[in-house]
Amino acid sequence: MHYKWRALALLWVAFFLQQGTRQIFSATLSSIQGALGVTAAQIGLVATVFTFVYGLSVPFAGLTADLFNRKWMVVSGVFVFCLGIFASGFVSCLGLILLAYGVLNGVGQSFYYPSATSIVGELHKETRATALSILQMGLYVGIIGCSAASGWLAQSGAEGWRVPFKLFGGIGILWAVVMAFGLRGGQSTAIESNRMQSTAGETKPSLKEAFKVFVGNPSAILLAAGLGMMIYVDVGFKTWMPSHLAGTFGMAPGAAALNAVLWHYLGAFVGVTLGGRISDRLAQRRPSVRMETNIAGLALGVPFIVWMAYAPSLALCCVAMALFGVFRGVYDSNLMASLFDIIPQRYHASGAGIMLCIAFVFGSTSPVALGFVKDSFSSTAALASLAAFYLAGAVIIAIARARQYRTSDQGIRTSGQQLATLNS
Known about the structure:
- The protein is mainly α.
- The chain has helices at 3-27, 29-36, 40-67, 70-88, 94-110, 113-123, 128-153, 162-182, 189-199, 207-215, 218-249, 253-283, 289-310, 314-332, 335-340, 348-363, 366-376, 379-384, 386-404, 409-423.
- The protein folds into two domains: 1-184, Growth Hormone, Chain: A, CATH 1.20.1250; 205-424, Growth Hormone, Chain: A (Up-down Bundle), CATH 1.20.1250.
- Helix 1 (3-27) packs antiparallel against helix 8 and helix 13 packs antiparallel against helix 19.
- The protein starts with a helix and ends with a helix.
């Protein structure tokens, strides 16, 4: 197997673990709450702390990845967050799970994605969106698989909720060792590039420089804002959809947790595959197609969010979640590819980190905001409100597209030539 595909396979499993282990907490939340004897607000704080810590840590993780070997950033990140997951299976109080799951897990996970996507972006020049789409599938499979396994394992007894934390955390620690040997050692492509630039009199990027480049690009800021709208919807959906299914259709908690993610991410699997393949084929002739794919994914997902919230039957709700997932996948297929097209390669990891920071800090407010709407009105109203954020995200990225690319065919070709020069 060509090394670029072998590396993608190693990173895919790590992404499966990164995203899947996040769902262990959601799938076992009620059991954890009962075991620790805390209120709903207190146990909800764990998810908020994790999301907030991740958002604050990820730009520094991205910068560090631009300065040092990205292989070891990925390996150390997987080891640290899986250690946090593993430790979560042994906690005895709220403070310890806040530390293990909220802080240790949050920091460790922040070090994975910027470095991993940068490695994939460097190895896959002509198949970038396809490769990143394949990587994104690890998110869908991880969330569905770990949700199902965690819900089943948690039923093994009063302490059953601890089993999935120990199991997947332990597997992840071992996988970090596998990646240490499987990913190529020595200097990454990025570091070699930095050495060549240093020889030519250029310095490695500093935090100030990375922020200056990102903030100085209005289109990059707008892409981050658009991602923030999507993350707000994603976090709110995954937090409250299980309780909506249980309360509205009388589903058992375990079945509700599985169905809340299964149909959505099966649809996303289809969407991310189609979006990545189509955009890769068109990108050479139409560089703006990556942002246009983002816009289409968010805009076309709006009606299905509303349908999902107001569906009168479980079957129709599942259909709506699946179609919502298809267009979420279309957006995901070019999530980072759009950013990488408009910023220099040496800032890819730090740029991804800054973008994720903005998005996740904003998105961390979703569980609390939707909880307020749910308490004041209903879970239906809370979920339906998410449609407004998808629509806002589509509008924001449309503005970014208008700023970055000229509307004429000649302008788009010129813009494409300028971006090729920028990334060379």
